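Second attempt. The first submission of Simple sugar transport system permease protein had a stray character pasted in from the spreadsheet, which I only caught after the job came back as garbage. Lesson logged: always re-copy from the clean sequence file. Corrected sequence (315 aa) follows.
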Amino acid sequence: MSAGLLILIKFTLLSGIVLMYVALGGCFSEHSGVINIALEGVMVIGGLFGILTVCCIPKNLPSFLIVTISILVAMISGMIYSSLLAFASINLKADQTIGGTALNILATAIALVVVKHYNSTITTNNAQSPKLNYDNSLFIFNVGPFTLNVFIILGIVLLVLSYFVLYKTRFGLHLRACGEHPQAADSVGINVYKMRWAGVLISGALAGIGGMAYIVPSVQEWNFEVGVGGMGFLALAVMIFGKWNPGYIFLGSLFFAVFKSLANIYDSTFLASFHLTKEIYNMMPFIASLVVLMFTSKNSKAPKAEGIPYDKGMR
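This time the job returned cleanly.
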């Protein structure tokens, strides 16, 4: 197997797992009846506070403890930030698309302010730069001749767990009922408001981990001005392509991740012979998503009540 193919497989797996995390988050939210357009912003917030934890936590702690704490912080940060969308869309019955868009814009602004403040409190030659330096080797471990990223292992576990929760538990049945016919769910004693809150919070937790999974393996210094490169929006396309089913979402994530990976390593593959700029290759996954959704969106079966605020007084 050639070195170029091995690199492509490695990058595809990493990018695919990131997309899967976030798409699974969107899946839980939409199954509850709430469209989470804010996935991009939640990724930024989760990645921001997860990396800040890695930077600030005492370095004399065991590596596995640093990794565990930072991932938990990313998850909780995503949940807290997504609760803003939950409150606006569930309690205040605000437009979910507008609320999610506002949170996407706000997330980058929050990240820039927090990172610049952090840099100004430590000794640095570039205090005003919106960047964080961190040790990404903490998240990589060796298994024989192979190196594995902790986010890949965690992603596989969460994929299996997500499928089990959605289709094999009473909670999952209630959640899906609230996204299909909330009035019917309410009539049998299911609290629609609580289930939708649960869906959005789970969505925030997964997207928060996804944000950290996107940022940490990439480099050892991250500029928050660039955000997460549209991965949250691409994850929404993966979710639709995957028919809101965790298994199909995983396969769809790998499909789109191939295009994302080619954009990162095009100069070491046959694509280099075309002499195109990197920006063109960066467009490939989004062009692919448009083409795929053009042919598949007609047959997609979204939860019937998604995006519709629930009013207990309506029947």
